[in-house]
Amino acid sequence: xxxxxxxxxxxxxxxxxxxxxxxxxxxxxxxxxxxxxxxxxxxxxxxxxxxxxxxxxxxxxxxxxxxxxxxxxxxxxxxxxxxxxxxxxxxxxxxxxxxxxxxxxxxxxxxxxxxxxxxxxxxxxxxxxxxxxxxxxxxxxxxxxxxxxxxxxxxxxxxxxxxxxxxxxxxxxxxxxxxxxxxxxxxxxxxxxxxxxxxxxxxxxxxxxxxxxxxxxxxxxxxxxxxxxxxxxxxxxxxxxxxxxxxxxxxxxxxxxxxxxxxxxxxxxxxxxxxxxxxxxxxxxxxxxxxxxxxxxxxxxxxxxxxxxxxxxxxxxxxxxxxxxxxxxxxxxxxxxxxxxxxxxxxxxxxxxxxxxxxxxxxxxxx
Length: 367
Hints:
InterPro entries: F-box-assoc_dom_typ1, F-box-assoc_interact_dom, F-box-like_dom_sf, F-box_dom, SCF_F-box_component. By secondary structure, the protein is mainly beta.
């Protein structure tokens, strides 16, 4: 009978990287050697890369916030209304919870005064220190509510928490916190004339940068971005006449813009199939006639399922599955979620540990 010693580490990595994160946690407890191999940075990165490559073949994991303020996780979406959710033991705020995903981790902002970095699968979490909101750099200016982002810096092998403050005279101040070192850095960018802050507090993290939809000339939307490794701002081309009131998210591994048309008949979801390529924007139209027109909660695409034949949405505070080809929609019934769905996000099944990444500035959260 073969034993663990019969298999080289590279074979073990290849086999176990195909498994979800949960069973790998159990295999780690079988032996010290397995625990060492399955906890190594090389294996964790290999597992993450494998899971990210499979996102289009399986339903992404979804984290849902509901009323009263709580969190639930859906791991598999079933056709026969047998979808099951489980409760997540994460801190929840009284007024608001903001969730920002990146590589299986989520940044949780509670009532805009506490921040946690958590892995929804392993349930590890650490508290991230707040930025010096009242430091001299910000007191000098009036500023709007900040924009939050979490992004992986591949150059420095580091996760970074970014807050963008929009101050007077079209200026932006970036507060960048390194999870790896616990070091915080503040950057002031040159003014971008006639651009205004986004109406959505979450940045879209993609390709080593945070992205947001800013209001431009005549209230036409513009995608602005910050490359966190090089600390350089740049712009991404958008479809023509995208309104500044639109929302920018990530859907199926691509940037997407949700443009809620004012005539009330449909919502346009623009998807950028090739990053940075203006001619790669494709449009998915979701009719509003299948929803209650009296409710005005914005549509929020979460993930594709069935090889992109269907997309899971939060619409009018309910979970909905929209068939892209047929143009039809149905309610998604989930065991354990009988209340209002406020928001949701898709995240990658991951073994990335916030406690292992944790720099000197954070505090490990209590369970």
